[in-house]
Structures are given as structure tokens and as C-alpha cells.
């Protein structure tokens, strides 16, 4: 499976196109370095637009959950977060792996069963792991302490929720891993490792499989055919690769090498998959994260969980690139107010104070409307000994958020190094009127 070449044009056409591509050369410290560090900002060329009222359905690995939350926070209706799963669902809550689909086959299984319910294997996919205890390796490792009839009813409600994929205006697919597990008896790829007790009881039933390029591409094409077959709306679809690496590998090699294969083979397959498909785009969230400075890219002091600030920045990029009417900032690669705020937080982690000040200056209108941005700008300017600029930012923050005592108090404290004693007295009177209960702060300002 696969085309002979991803692309084929004449040499003359290639040189003409290269000449007109302003982003052709890889960034260097002295040229376009800000496009790569501290936060990579790959550019996209959308082939479709997302209308303001369009609904979204996200499916795939754990990064898809980040995408859902960010889009929901941005005011989009996310159908993949609208579900009623009864007592079983309530018992699971946000159980690890429950809504995540780690391989293309796991995604395709659920979509096929949801849209063509007669293909659902029923009780065969519910594995008994003890008396009155079951699990479903299609959903994750969560234990299901209910009777089989209740679990099956829940399973159909889950598929009802998955069926919303045919009604959503926009589908976001995030591929995870290529290390998979296969049930030979059912002829079915699983989503997670089957229970150890079942492997011991039936050692020949399950296989560990590493997907190839053609496996991934074939799964993508199968999923696409299912969606086209059952949807009445035009398909608008963003596909990407999760930046979250393997926690561990079952292959006989360094996990770093195994992870590189896992991500790169899926990334390569997506380039061929999108060829000639109207309304299907690749979005580089994987590149956003993995090419960025690790200090800002990862959260929880590890190299696996993507920083919420980076997720916000990525989704801000999605919104302004694809959504009509999304307000863009002036700096290349920077997007909405949320994106500006996220970028400043990341720069603050690196103590890049001058870059913070410059970024706010380049996006003055957005900065002046956001109190959090102004507070960060004030801090950065203060660290640079740019006292007047820090004072000005705090003044704006106090104006748009008069209920915040911290902006006014920082203005008062700045009056001392700026030798503005009379201004400090005036601000203290204002502080006493606005925040009578904070006399402890005023008592400390003895230099006035």
C-alpha cells in the first residue's frame, strides 16, 4: 500500500516554489530563531475554515483530552465530552486510559462499532478477570465491578456517545502509539495490554504487534471510509500525532529509539493519508512540542506531560488559523489573548524578561486588554530595571481590574525606587479607600 511518491513536480517548478517560500530555511539563532526557541511555531496552511458555531469531536490518545478541554474553554461545543454513561460511567469518572484510544486500530474499532452497531462483538470484548469482575481492554485498564448485563448496557451507551462523530462539524484525530496488542481469538486489536491473568491462562491467545507504515496508513484509510460513508455533512478533519512519548516499550531496544519509530512512522503515514482528501489537514502539534525548549514544553517535572501553557498556545494557533473571526496577534506564530498569555508564562519560566517586554510591545492592543499579561509585563520590566514601563503596566492593570489589590500595591512599592513620594501618598489614600481591610500592607510602607 502507498503511492510511489508523495509529490512529483518538475525541477523548474521546484526552484520557483522554493524561491517563493519564505519559511524554506531551517531557523538559526541569527535568522528566525524565535520560530524555534523557546517555543517552536510551525506554520500551517488551512484548506478549510471552521464556522463559529461548528461542533467538534476529538478522538485518539491522551493528548486528545487536552485538545478537548482547551477547545471547550475557548467556547467551542465539544461533542466528545457530552455523554451520559450511567452508573458504570459514574464509577469510572476520569479513570486513566478510559476515553483514550492509543492506536489507529483502537480508534477505528470504536467508530465502526458505533456507526455499524451490528459489528460490535458484544460480551466477547468484556473479559472476566475474577468472580464478578470484568474489564474491557478497548476502553482501558479500569476494573468493571458490575454484572455483565449492566456492563453491556453501559458499553452501548458509550458507543452512542462515540456515534456523535458523524454529526460533528469538525473531527480532530490524535494518533498515539504503534506498539499494540492483538486478540487472536477475536481477530481484534486491543487498546491496552490484556490482563496478565488472561495472558497466563491463555498464552497463545494474545500477541504483541508493532505496526508498520502500511498498517497505520491502512487503518487511517479504513477510518476515513467509515466517516465518509456515514456522514451527511462535509468532512472537516484535523489529524495529528500526540507528542506524549511512550512510558515504556515492549520492544527489545532503548525506549528512546522505540519512541522515535512509533512517532515517525505515524507522522510519515499522515503525510500520505491527507493527499487528495478535501477538508483533511495535518496540524503540527507534535512539532510544536517536540521542537520546543523542554523547560517550557513539559509539565510535572518530566518529559512526558505537555505543559498546559503549550496546549493553550497550540489550540490558540488552531483557532486563529481555522476559525473565522478569531483575533490574531501581530507577532508571527502568536495567536489569541490566550496564546499571548501562555507564551509569556513560558518565557517567564526561562527568565527571558526582554523577550516578554518585546512580545507585549509587539501586541500592545491584546496586552492592554488582559490584566494577567500586564502583570507579567510589569514583572519583566521591573527585573530589567525598566521602572517606568513596569509602573505603566501596573497602572493599566489597576484600571481594568480595580478589585485587584496586588496591582495597586506593586505601584506603591515602585514609587520608592522611582522617588515618587507624593505619588505614593496619593496611591496609599486610594488603597485605603478601595481595600480598607489591608491595613497590614499600608503599615509596612513606612518610608512614605
Output the keywords.
3-stranded antiparallel β-sheet; 19 helices; 448 residues; alpha/beta; Rossmann fold; single chain
Short structural description:
Pfam families: GSCFA. This protein has 448 residues and is of the alpha/beta class.
Secondary structure topology:
Elements: H1 11-19, E1 55-60, H2 63-73, E2 77-78, H3 86-92, H4 104-115, E3 127-130, E4 133-135, E5 143-144, H5 148-162, E6 170-175, E7 179-183, E8 188-190, H6 196-201, E9 206-210, H7 213-230, E10 236-241, H8 255-273, E11 280-282, H9 285-290, H10 294-297, E12 298-299, E13 305-306, H11 308-322, H12 337-349, H13 353-362, H14 364-368, H15 371-383, H16 387-400, H17 405-414, H18 421-434, H19 439-444
Parallel strand pairs: 1-2, 1-6, 6-10, 10-11
Antiparallel strand pairs: 3-4, 4-5, 7-8, 7-9, 12-13
Helix pairs in contact: 2-11, 3-5, 4-5, 4-7, 7-8, 11-12, 12-13, 12-15, 13-15, 15-16, 16-17, 17-18
InterPro entries: GSCFA, TPR-like_helical_dom_sf
Protein name: GSCFA family
Pfam family, one: GSCFA
Amino acid at each position: 500500500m502507498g503511492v510511489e511518491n508523495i509529490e512529483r513536480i518538475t525541477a523548474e517548478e521546484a526552484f520557483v516554489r522554493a524561491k517563493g517560500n519564505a519559511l524554506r530555511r531551517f531557523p538559526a539563532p541569527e535568522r528566525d530563531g524565535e520560530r524555534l526557541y523557546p517555543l517552536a511555531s510551525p506554520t500551517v496552511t488551512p484548506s478549510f475554515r471552521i464556522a463559529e458555531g461548528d461542533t467538534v469531536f476529538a478522538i485518539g490518545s491522551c493528548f486528545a483530552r487536552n485538545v478537548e478541554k482547551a477547545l471547550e474553554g475557548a467556547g467551542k461545543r465539544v461533542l466528545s465530552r457530552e455523554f451520559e454513561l450511567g452508573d458504570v460511567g459514574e464509577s469510572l469518572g476520569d479513570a486513566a486510559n478510559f476515553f483514550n484510544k492509543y492506536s489507529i486500530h483502537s480508534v477505528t474499532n470504536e467508530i465502526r462499532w458505533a456507526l455499524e452497531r451490528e459489528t460490535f462483538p458484544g460480551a466477547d470484548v468484556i473479559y472476566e478477570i475474577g468472580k464478578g469482575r470484568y474489564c474491557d481492554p478497548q476502553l482501558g485498564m479500569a476494573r468493571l465491578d458490575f454484572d455483565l448485563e449492566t456492563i453491556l448496557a453501559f458499553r452501548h451507551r458509550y458507543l452512542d456517545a462515540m456515534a456523535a462523530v458523524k454529526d460533528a462539524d469538525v473531527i480532530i484525530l490524535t494518533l498515539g502509539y504503534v506498539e499494540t496488542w492483538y486478540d487472536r481469538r477475536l481477530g481484534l486489536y486491543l487498546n491496552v495490554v490484556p490482563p496478565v491473568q488472561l495472558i497466563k491462562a491463555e498464552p497463545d491467545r494474545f500477541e504483541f504487534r508493532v505496526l508498520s507504515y502500511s498498517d497505520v496508513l491502512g487503518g487511517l484509510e479504513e477510518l476515513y471510509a467509515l466517516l465518509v460513508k456515514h456522514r451527511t455533512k462535509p468532512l472537516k478533519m484535523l489529524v495529528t500525532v500526540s507528542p506524549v512519548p511512550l512510558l515504556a516499550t515492549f520492544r527489545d531496544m532503548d525506549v528512546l529509539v522505540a519512541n522515535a519509530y512509533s512517532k515517525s512512522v505515524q507522522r510519515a503515514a499522515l503525510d500520505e493519508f491527507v493527499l487528495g482528501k478535501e477538508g483533511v489537514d495535518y496540524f503540527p502539534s507534535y512539532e510544536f512540542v517536540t521542537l520546543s525548549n523542554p523547560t517550557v514544553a513539559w509539565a510535572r517535572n518530566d518529559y512526558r506531560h505537555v505543559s498546559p501553557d503549550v496546549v493553550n498556545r497550540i489550540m490558540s494557533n488552531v483557532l486563529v488559523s481555522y476559525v473565522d473571526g478569531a483575533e490574531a496577534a501581530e507577532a508571527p506564530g502568536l495567536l489569541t489573548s490566550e496564546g499571548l498569555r501562555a507564551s509569556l508564562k513560558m518565557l517567564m519560566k526561562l527568565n527571558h524578561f526582554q523577550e516578554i517586554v518585546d512580545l507585549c510591545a509587539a501586541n500592545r492592543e491584546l496586552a492592554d486588554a488582559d490584566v494577567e499579561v500586564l502583570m507579567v509585563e510589569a514583572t519583566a520590566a521591573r527585573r530589567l530595571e525598566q521602572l517606568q514601563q513596569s509602573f505603566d503596566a501596573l497602572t493599566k492593570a489597576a484600571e481594568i481590574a480595580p478589585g485587584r489589590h496586588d496591582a495597586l500595591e506593586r505601584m506603591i512599592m515602585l514609587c520608592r525606587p522611582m522617588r515618587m513620594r507624593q505619588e505614593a501618598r496619593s496611591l496609599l489614600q486610594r488603597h485605603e479607600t478601595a481595600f480598607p481591610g489591608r491595613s497590614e500592607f499600608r503599615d509596612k510602607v513606612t518610608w512614605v
